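note to self — DONT lose this again. spent like an hour looking for the file last time. sequence + predicted structure for the chain T wanted, 377 res
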Amino acid sequence: MNNEFFEALKDLGTENSVDTDVMIEKVKIAMQKAAQRIYPDCKENIHVEIDPERKIFNVSLMQEVVDEEPINATQIHIDVARTIDPNTYVGAMIEKRLDISKFGRASAQSAKQSIKGDLRDINRDRLLEKFADKENDIITATITQVEPGRGSATLLYDKTELYLLRSEQIPGETLREGMSIKVYVTGIVNKSKKPIVKVSRVHRDLVKRLFELEVPEIFDGTVEVKAISREAGSRSKIAVISHDANVDAIGSCIGPKRSRISAIVRELNGEKIDIIPYSENPAEFIAHALSPAKVLSVNILDEEERTCMAIVPNDQLSLAIGNRGQNAKLAAKLTGFKIDIKSDQDAAAMPAPEQEVSTESEAAVEDAADACVDAAE
């Protein structure tokens, strides 16, 4: 019986990654509570001994030997005590072994629930501690299972199972068991009860973290990521600026022989990435954001409402808008402006605006657009 108990105890500890000593302490507390249900007045007198080395598992009730009628189970009459220990005396303590098989179903169930509750608390605290500094960060996990129907994937990270929902996977990406993938930890919900770590591969900050991993200049702060917009699986735009005149922000992100940008694109399943030079001048920034299209000028219509009009060559209009408006939408999300894109021919037929804020020289804009095209390719 004891051998089976200790085997079960060991297995339970292994399944929950809990040390045997911790498990023993939790079982002791649970058995004490179970015994107290039967002997409610004997809390301090109940003793639980568990020794895995000697395979000892005993629950005992310590009783004081008295020469009068016992007031409760904490006492035992001298005549009864001498049937257990002939040498006992009044005032001595007698150990009465309790048969746990006779505790009753309610007490056994209570002990079982107590142990389960303790394990839940241990696992919750361990998970919260493990992921305390992982929120809003990137981790590498291994795919252990992909559900054929729903498409959700089970991931394993540091002995902890995580679930990547289909809606948080990159569209068009095929996940297979055994693959290692990077996911972004968006947060931990239900922290007080059963914590759930939420992860994603479509979150825009996944792109930012990947650049921090691949580009030392971003990691050390020389190059700063100012904004990101993303349509997962298709295209991302990332605006960067260098805080060192001797460091080229876009060149740093692309890397020698395109090594850095290529590694990020591979991780994102071939997603195109436009690297945009950031500017404090909204007109310049908007012009860059519409790359790879070349922009002739940008007119800020309302600073508070953040609306503007971008003028592009007639043959660049489709490129500026993009397939299904994707390029324009990403540029708008990146800059925070509502962008009305017009061809130069359409703009010429409109009344002249009161004030037009020109972008930097056309040559500079073209250079930024060319850099963006290089990054996307």
